[in-house]
Amino acid sequence: MKKILTLTLLMSLLFISCSSDDDSDTIVPTIAATMTPPAWTHGTWNITVPSSIKGFTFSSFNLCQVLKDDTSSCYQEKIINHNFAHLTNIVEETKSAEIYNVTIKLHKSVVTYKFRKGEEDLNGNYLIYWIIPNADPEILETEIPMENTKPKVPPVTPPTGPVPGPPVTT
C-alpha cells in the first residue's frame, strides 16, 4: 500500500509540474510613446528645393518622411516596433500656432525635427519650413520651404449678369 501511495504521489507531482503554464511567454509591451503634430501641419508637404528626401506627411498621430521614390518612413510605426521589443521610445514635443518641435528617441538613436508655419496668402495657403540647425552656432539655421500637395483653392463665384451665348429668340 505504501508503494502505491508513494507512486500516486510521485505521479501527481509529475503531472502538476508538466501541466501547461497559464502564464505565457508573450511579453506585454509597455505603453508606446505618442506624437500629436498640430493641425496646421496635417497633410503632405513637398520640399521645393533639391533635397535628399521628397517631403513630410503629418497626421494627427504621426510624422512620416516621404522619400524620393514615394515610399514613406513613419515614426509611429517605429515607436510601436521599439515598444514591442521593450526598447526606449520617447517623444518630446513643443507646439505653438507657428512652431512644431519634436524629438524622437528610439533606443540609442535620437532625431529632432523643427518646423515653422509661414505666412498665409488670401486663400489660406501657406508654406511650412523645415528648420535644420547648423553645428556652428555662428551660422543661422537653414530653412527649407515645403508646399502642401493639396493647396486650398479660391471658391468659384458664379458670373453675374447675362450668360454669354447665342441670343434667345422666341
Characterise this structure.
By secondary structure, the protein is α+β, with helices and mostly antiparallel strands. The termini are far apart. It is elongated. The chain is 16% helix and 31% strand. A nine-stranded antiparallel sheet has the order 4-3-2-1-9-8-7-6-5, with helices on one face. The chain has helices at residues 2-18, 75-84; strands spanning 43-47, 55-58, 63-66, 72-74, 89-95, 99-106, 109-117, 128-132, 142-148.
Number of strands: 9
Secondary-structure-derived class: alpha+beta
- The coarse overall form would be elongated
Main β sheet profile: 9 strands, antiparallel
Side by side, the strands of the main sheet go 4-3-2-1-9-8-7-6-5
N-to-C CA distance: 121 Å
Task: Provide the gyration radius in Å.
Answer: 30 Å
Structure characteristics:
2 helices, 16% helix, alpha+beta
Task: Describe, in short, the structure shown.
By secondary structure, this protein is α+β, with helices and mostly antiparallel strands. Helices cover about 15% and strands about 30% of the residues.
What layout of secondary structure does this protein have?
Blueprint: H1 2-18, E1 43-47, E2 55-58, E3 63-66, E4 72-74, H2 75-84, E5 89-95, E6 99-106, E7 109-117, E8 128-132, E9 142-148
Antiparallel strand pairs: 1-2, 1-9, 2-3, 3-4, 5-6, 6-7, 7-8, 8-9
